[in-house]
């Protein structure tokens, strides 16, 4: 690094005599470098002393290279006693070098803080290793193969983020890997490592006539008032799991291993991730951080008007801590869902938050500029006397010195600009932590007042914290609910929603930080009681609304599968993760997708046809991604799938890609053992038993309720022989059954079959074979003259078994969805067509002469209308449609979806549509019977 090529930003100091003396002592003649050293010495008594003390070292030190590595080379061989003086000398030289590079404008902020952090890391590691080695040499530490005796120092705060300021203390948490020692040696190891930690801290922090290395603070460890300076990793994990607080979570954003057994430290931090990074968006962290800000200000007396003289650049209003809190809190909110946000550095964190849409880019850029400026001022303050202070001088002379060190000649103008920047930071961060004034509470009817009063007894509002956060959002919430098109219904449905919540702090904090969600919940409660009930069961789905892509274009089946694969991989690989965690993760992912589809449908962003396809995309991805995960878990005990593997067929509405908000999944599993009689694993199984039990495991993975709820109900009754048949069928048996034994209704069901999941070594080829077999069966069996008469018999049995479920039934009964779809399947079977979608199957009818073109179009139109009613109705409620219970909002949604103006018109159109479709189907079947006669 060529200092002589740089022009100093410092003017000649007020006291040139001392600076000149220091300069002459170095023997450096270059005038520009001389200006830098003279200016540095004149502004800082501390640095002047270092220049004089290191006068012999300085000329040779001014050369390119890593000053920390150069000045600590060979320290590994020093004894514990010799290490302290050597580190203090290195600290003096690194501090002087860094100050000259900083003041001379040679290094940017990150290089300055990075060099100071490198020295802190090096000193910590050397000191721990030296004193652990001393304990080992004395025979006080039991033998272990662990690196550095299993001890590890975690750098916290600014050291963890490589952001040490010029006179920082260093915050360390020292742990040891208790798993590295035999149970009988635990007490002795613990005592020795505690001694080593105390001595290492003294080596670094003791202030002698040679100075000190770093002031060292070990109080960030768990329960510092009662725990020793070094505790076991298992004890630390137990503490954070049971008692960890938000400020400790925030502290661990920056934590990293810096000395000793770095691998043990990395393992500890991996296991701690679920504590630091919450699975759901954690907006409750905002209030915790705000409360902490206020407590700090109260404790330090830092309220009131911003004045530059004496202002605390770290903790004061608009200071460094405000920007750090702003960044860390946003990271805590979303970092559980997005690992890309888990960065230690403040500048890097702001940039990533902006990139991900959590902070407006212009805000991130402005805060970054203020942060850099604040940190440089902080460095100048501390360089004057090596004092651990963050407050600007109160005297005019002291402020002049800091302004000069910042390269400013006009202290008054510089102070005015600084005051403006501080006020701006306070405004930007204050809006985030304590957003604007609350609305006034709207006037309510006596009945509504009684309902609202009842809320205080609900589980979500039983905690003081829950009531406190809710009180801040209640006026806005009530204002939006009472402004809904059907206010009484909206309020009543929100009451039901609130009553179903097991807890409220996180959700209420989410609403407080994102008022647009209050508008969404009012919309849902005013329109869709079914969706409101779904939301009460799965309130975490609101996280997805804020993820940035909630209202973007639908990603499609392939992208959804990739998303879920990534989610499952992360759940399986996470510390404390595994199979159960993967099942929970799949449920949360699917719930968010289903909620998104429901909201888009409710707000007319998509129609019923698109909604049906999107619900199917989510189900496809869930089955396709989970099947190999279940198979891998099963294989751990019983070996990999024997033979070629297995495929899952989606049947019914899933196969036709026409699901609604409450659809279950019809599935069939087909396998090919390829002659292999049993699996090869720790507990081998006969092939038939293997695939039967694997199928049961898949059903459980999809349908069992877990802590994250249920994924799907699964129906396997469409398999060969129904409930009497095996749950998994070999491809050979499936072929034989379909060709020789299957009933017509089973061939009809096969018209909608679709491979959606595979596992095994050759499952892709098996999937192609199964699809070819499906088409072969349809083409072979579709010519059977019994197909149409069998359909007529099926209709009669269906109508006899179940009448339409109320006046608004769209699915079951003559001329309704199921009736039309069965005829469409019959068309596909008779034509030997591979088409699965109902509309495509209906088009085959006219082509093969089973129905006239106009009647075919009438059937297609009827299906679209009935599907719109069915899909919309299932979003509103899982029960039969009851317009009185549904309310005005739900009625309006149904009318909009079906293109009708009133309930009377909807009823008339439904009756006419059903009668038209029923008559056409009657005619088709009667015509076939007449031809047969």
From TrEMBL:
Q: What cellular component terms from Gene Ontology apply here?
A: cytosol
Task: Determine if ATP-binding is one of this entry's keywords.
Answer: yes
Which keywords does the record carry? Answer: ATP-binding, Magnesium, Multifunctional enzyme, Nucleotide-binding, Nucleotidyltransferase, Transferase
Is the keyword Membrane in the record? no
**GO molecular function annotations of the record:** [glutamate-ammonia-ligase] adenylyltransferase activity; ATP binding
Question: What Gene Ontology terms for biological process does this UniProt record contain?
Answer: regulation of glutamine family amino acid metabolic process
List, for all copies, the residue spans of the domain called Glutamate-ammonia ligase adenylyltransferase repeated: 79-270, 520-759
Give the domain of life: Bacteria
> Where do the PII-uridylyltransferase/Glutamine-synthetase adenylyltransferase domain residues begin and end?
291-433, 810-914
Query: What name does the UniProt record give this protein?
Result: Glutamate-ammonia-ligase adenylyltransferase
Species this chain originates from: Paracoccus versutus
